[in-house]
Each structure stands twice: as C-alpha cells, then as structure tokens.
C-alpha cells in the first residue's frame, strides 16, 4: 500500500535508486518511501526518526511537556534553558527529531519511558481495525498523549491510521481553544471559593485556640479542685472516702469529655487545612493558565485594536463593495510576499495591499507551488510575511534561509487572519516613521525560529 503523508509535499528531484521493493517503485517523494528496516521486519515498532517529518511537530507538542523539553533540548543545542521561549524550545526539538542522531534518540527514550504502559496496552492490537478501536477509546476517555505515541509507532499503524489519528488530534486542538473562556470562569469561581475557605480556616484556628486556652484553664481549675479536695480529706478524717472517690471520678470524666471535644476539633482543623492546601495548589495551576490565556487575549486585543483603528482612520478609502479599506499607506509601492495562509484570507489581504498601492504575491509554502520558487520570488520582495499556524516547519526554515541570504526583511504572523496582518503592517509603519524608515530587524533566529 502506498504511504501518503498528512500534508501534500512539493515534488523534489531524486537521484536515489528505487530498488527497495516493486510495490514502492512509483513513489516520487523520497521522504514517503519506507526504510529498508521496515521492509525487512514489518512487526517492529517505528522509531521517531522513521516517521514522516510532518508528524514530528504534533508528536512532540502533544506527548512531551514544555518542562521536559526545556530539560532535554539544551543538552543537544546551544539554547539557554532559562531564557529561551517555549516556541524556540519546541522548534529545536522538532529539528532534533528530523535530523536524527543523539537528540532524536533522547527524545525517543523519553517518550518510550513515559508511555511504556500505553505501548504495552496497544500491543494487543493485531490489526489496523483493532488499533483504530483502541485509539477511539482513548479519545473518548481523554487520555490522548499516551495513545497518540502508541498508535503512531505501532507496527500495524499504516499511513491511513496515522492520518486518522493526526486529523482527530488536529480537530481536538480547536475544541481546546474554544474551551478557554469556560476555564477562566471556573478559575474565577475557584478563586472565590479558595478565599472563602481561607477565611473559614482562620476562624476555625481562632476557635481552636480559644478551646485550647479554655481546656488548659479547665485542667488547672480541676487540678486545683482535686488538690483542694485531697487537702480537705486529710484535714477531715470523718469525710466519707466513697464520696471523695465519686467526686474525683466525676472530675476525671469531665476532663475526658473536654479532651474528646478537643480531639474532634483538632481533626476537623487538620482536614480543613489539607483541603485548603489542595485548593491552593489547584488555584495556582489555574492562575498560571489564566496568565497564559490573558497574554493570548492581549495579543488578540492588540490585533483587533489595530484593525479597528485602521478601519476608522481619517481619510480612509472605500473599496469596490462599499466597505472601508484600512489605511496601509506604508505599503505603497512595496512588494509583499505572503507564504502560507488560507485562500479566503489571502484574497482579502491581496485586496488590502493592492488598495494601498502595493504588490501582493502569494506562495502557498509548497502545497501547490514549488518550494524552489522561493529563490525567484523573495529577492525582489520588500517584505516577506508568513503565518506560523498555516506553514510547515520545512517551508519555514527554507524561507528563513533564503531571506537571510538575500537580506530580505521577513516577519512571522501569529495566525493567517486579516487582523494579524493589519496589526503587523500598522506596527511596522509606526516603527518605520519613528526610526527614519529603517526596516526593523526580524525577531526570529535563523536556526531556532
């Protein structure tokens, strides 16, 4: 069966022989051909380097946390563990997986060690149908990372199975993004509950302190009474020994009742303190997630504000359909090359740039257009823009190398939306006017993204 990667790849010339097997002679993409080891032993689990390079991003981003990568990646790169961003760490890990070598082996070892249980559980699947059934069960239970690693490296994971798992994971990422608002609401509610629990614990601690003080005073009072009664008994030989013994027993019972009451309150206090600690740790976790979400909201708000200000700018023009055109006068006479993106938003961006007097050239990053066209299109460009959510790692690295070779200014966009493009152009125009029309340096490293 012919293997098909999750992305359509650009056709590249190949000088390699196709003597592996007759059934694979029609493959024109060398990266899609199975290895000799796979042809000799079809029952062996796939290694990370055996997988298609376009799957490495989803596997590393899903199955390994940022903290794990931050400990592992700097051992094989020159990244600073403390100051490198999460995106730089992720890009470096993907490059290590693509390049192979010690870095890829370390990633493979970390994944196998962490998900050994899931790998053993998926070994019971002896067919592609059974493997897909186990994957669907993992989706329902929400235990995605272990199942994703196990299914991607399973001996029966043909390309159609990997494509199905990749597609399910891709759609799940959209659902997770839509759930951020609900998480924020739950975090606010938990913070209020945590504050109420803290107040309750403080009141209980004050009450227990009062009870402890009262108990100590009662013990001293009862001890004084016992001593007084003992002295009276010694001074009054005619006093009945039985009455004195009964009074001592009554005092001891009263003291035991107070001790029991104190033990009950102490147990309640310890339980409340443990619950408060658990709630505090959970609240700290949610607070971190809230900070990340607020940072993302600030970025989105900045994009929306830039788009609104551009649309409401005085002297703005009106398009052919009666809608307002943002004020992008800094693009007048400039050639903008846009790599990646989506067809719908690319058409709107072309209209904006051409309305501002600029030239807009679109390259899809290698899906339909050849990646070799970078060398012809980029040298004549004034600025190169690419959305990081609609371009693969290979095209991004090639784009950076070509731009650096020809000294062309390039900028990444957070998304392929019109708002992200307008915010970037507005920011560049503002920076250009402040620095004497000097184009700002790229914020991305050529090696690490």
Automatic annotation (TrEMBL):
InterPro entries: UCP020408. Residues 1-20 are annotated as: Disordered. It comes from the Bacteria. Residues 180-214 form a coiled coil. Keywords: Coiled coil. Pfam families: DUF2325 (PF10087). Belongs to the UPF0751 family. This is Peptidase. It comes from Caballeronia mineralivorans PML1(12).
């Amino acid at each position: 069966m012919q293997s098909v990667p999750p992305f359509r790849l650009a056709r590249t010339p190949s000088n390699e022989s196709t003597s592996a097997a007759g059934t694979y002679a029609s493959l024109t993409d060398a990266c899609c051909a199975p290895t000799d080891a796979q042809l000799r032993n079809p029952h062996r689990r796939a290694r990370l380097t055996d997988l298609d390079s376009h799957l490495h991003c989803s596997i590393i981003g899903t199955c390994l946390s940022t903290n794990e990568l931050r400990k592992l990646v700097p051992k094989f790169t020159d990244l600073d563990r403390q100051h490198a961003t999460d995106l730089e760490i992720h890009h470096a890990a993907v490059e290590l997986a693509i390049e192979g070598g010690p870095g890829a082996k370390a990633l493979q070892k970390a994944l196998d060690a962490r998900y050994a249980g899931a790998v053993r559980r998926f070994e019971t699947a002896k067919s592609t149908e059974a493997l897909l059934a186990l994957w669907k069960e993992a989706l329902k239970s929400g235990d995605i990372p272990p199942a994703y690693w196990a299914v991607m490296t399973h001996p029966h994971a043909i390309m159609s199975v990997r494509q199905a798992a990749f597609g399910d994971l891709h759609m799940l990422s959209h659902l997770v993004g839509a759930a951020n608002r609900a998480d924020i609401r739950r975090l606010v509610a938990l913070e209020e509950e945590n504050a109420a629990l803290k107040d309750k614990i403080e009141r209980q601690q004050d009450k227990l302190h009062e009870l402890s003080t009262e108990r100590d005073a009662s013990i001293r009072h009862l001890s004084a009474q016992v001593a007084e009664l003992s002295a009276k008994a010694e001074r009054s030989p005619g006093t009945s020994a039985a009455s004195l013994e009964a009074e001592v027993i009554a005092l001891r019972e009263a003291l035991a009742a107070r001790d029991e009451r104190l033990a009950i309150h102490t147990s309640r206090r310890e339980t409340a303190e443990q619950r408060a600690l658990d709630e505090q740790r959970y609240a700290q976790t949610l607070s971190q997630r809230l900070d990340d979400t607020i940072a993302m909201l600030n970025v989105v708000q900045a994009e929306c504000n830039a788009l609104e200000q551009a649309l409401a700018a005085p002297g703005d023009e009106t398009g052919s359909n009666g809608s307002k055109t943002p004020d992008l006068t800094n693009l007048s006479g400039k050639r903008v090359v846009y790599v990646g993106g989506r067809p719908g938003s690319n058409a709107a961006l072309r209209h904006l740039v051409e309305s501002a007097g600029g030239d807009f050239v679109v390259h899809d990053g290698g899906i339909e257009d050849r990646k070799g066209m970078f060398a012809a299109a980029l040298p004549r460009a004034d600025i190169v823009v690419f959305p990081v959510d609609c371009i693969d790692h290979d095209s991004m690295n090639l784009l950076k190398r070509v731009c650096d070779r020809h000294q062309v200014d390039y900028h990444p966009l957070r998304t392929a939306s019109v708002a992200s493009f307008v915010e970037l152009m507005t920011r560049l125009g503002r920076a250009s006017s402040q620095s004497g029309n000097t184009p700002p340096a790229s914020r991305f490293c050529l090696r690490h993204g």
